[in-house]
Design brief:
Order of helices and strands: HHHHHHEHEEHEEHEE
Number of domains: 2
Strand content: 5-15%
CATH class of the largest domain: Alpha Beta
Mean pLDDT: 82
Shape: rod-shaped
Radius of gyration: 38 Å
CATH superfamily of the largest domain: Histidine kinase-like ATPase, C-terminal domain
CATH topology of the largest domain: Heat Shock Protein 90
Strand order of the largest sheet: 2-4-5-7-6
């Protein structure tokens, strides 16, 4: 269906513009020596409204000869041919309409009135049709531009989703590798602890697999995954590993699944594992103002061995935040006074509240 006919508001606006064109045409007809203004309006307004529907065909002409694929000569020929034919048909209709008005006594001399205005009517019709065709091409170009922009945005979304899938596929094997390495170390020194760790690991994996393809989960569920992971590590470290988890009233905020787990894993591997007395891993969330802030802190030994890991945990978290939110999320990591601190800030339009 024609886009103008598909909407009552568009059709009303379109006909309003043609009424203005009809008033302009009546002023040309009522020039000195011609019919008066009432007679000129009686001639011009019905003809203009009728021609408005004739000019709807310009949309289909623009579709049949699109700008990107049509040569200049062919484009000019098709536009001029359509304008001449349409204006000629309209001119015949104008002659009939003037005769009808003459029979009803609204026009004194039909033949003289038509002969006096046929050139004006024909030229006016050609001009208006070409204007309609130009408007149709502009609308078509706008639609093509909008479709190209939509396809580009869809491509960006698909690329971002593919990047996120790849990153999540890296996180799970990385965590599993570290956990299996810990279990392997325990099998020779503490077999019961190794068995307990296997059971806890199975529970953790079952819960993480239940996430499926979810893009966001409530923070309290993410914290539960962190708690399960730390229970696994406490089998290995015992009382050396202490935990402080605090949602800070942000329980219902939605976060990417397994966002905090790599940070907590780093806190254990590169913090608690290298301190003699162990320490407390603190995971806190605070919601206030325009942002939600997540903090992961752990004690660290200044003399610990450097560069023993792959650095995949922090790299993956940064990459996921960049892929999900571009510059709308921030992440800072660093050591100060024997404490390693990672801080993630998500804007409120990212950390939405869970509903239902």
């Amino acid at each position: 269906m024609h886009p103008i006919l598909a909407s009552g508001g568009r059709l009303a606006l379109y006909l309003g513009l043609w009424i203005v064109a009809g008033v302009l045409l009546s002023s040309l007809i009522a020039r000195p020596g011609g019919p008066g203004s009432p007679e000129a309006l009686a001639i011009a307004l019905p003809l203009a409204i009728t021609y408005a529907f004739f000019c709807l065909s310009a949309w289909y002409v623009s579709r049949s000869a699109p700008l990107p694929t049509t040569g200049t000569l062919r484009l000019a020929a098709s536009a001029l041919t359509a304008a001449l034919i349409t204006s000629a048909v309209w001119l015949l209709l104008a002659r009939v309409w003037i005769e009808v008005l003459a029979r009803r006594g609204l026009v004194a001399d039909a033949a003289a009135t038509f002969d006096r205005n046929d050139t004006v009517l024909f030229g006016f019709g050609v001009l208006l049709y070409l204007l309609s065709l130009t408007a149709s091409y502009l609308v078509a170009s706008f639609e093509v531009s909008r479709q190209a922009e939509r396809r580009a945005l869809e491509g960006q979304v698909l690329a971002r989703e593919a990047e996120l899938r790849a990153l999540r596929a890296q996180i799970d094997p990385h965590f599993l590798f570290n956990s299996l390495h810990s279990i392997s170390a325990l099998t020779s020194v503490d077999p019961p602890a190794a068995r307990q760790m296997c059971v806890l690991l199975a529970d953790f994996l079952r819960e993480s697999l239940a996430l499926g393809g979810e893009d966001r989960i409530p923070l309290n569920r993410e914290m539960d995954l962190v708690r399960r992971y730390l229970e696994i590590e406490r089998v290995r470290f015992g009382d050396r590993l202490r935990v402080d988890l605090d949602c800070g009233g942000a329980d219902a905020c939605l976060v990417p699944p397994l966002l905090l787990q790599p940070l907590v894993e780093n806190a254990v591997t590169h913090g608690i594992a290298h301190t003699i007395d162990g320490g407390t891993i603190r995971v806190a969330a605070t919601r206030g103002g325009p942002a939600v802030t997540f903090v992961v802190e752990n004690p660290c030994d200044p003399d610990r061995p450097r560069g023993t890991g792959t650095g995949l945990g922090l790299t993956n978290v940064r990459a996921r935040l960049r892929a999900l939110h571009r510059d709308d999320a921030q992440m800072r990591a660093g050591e100060e006074r024997g404490v390693w601190r990672v801080e993630i800030v998500l804007p409120t339009d990212v950390a939405r509240e869970a509903t239902g």
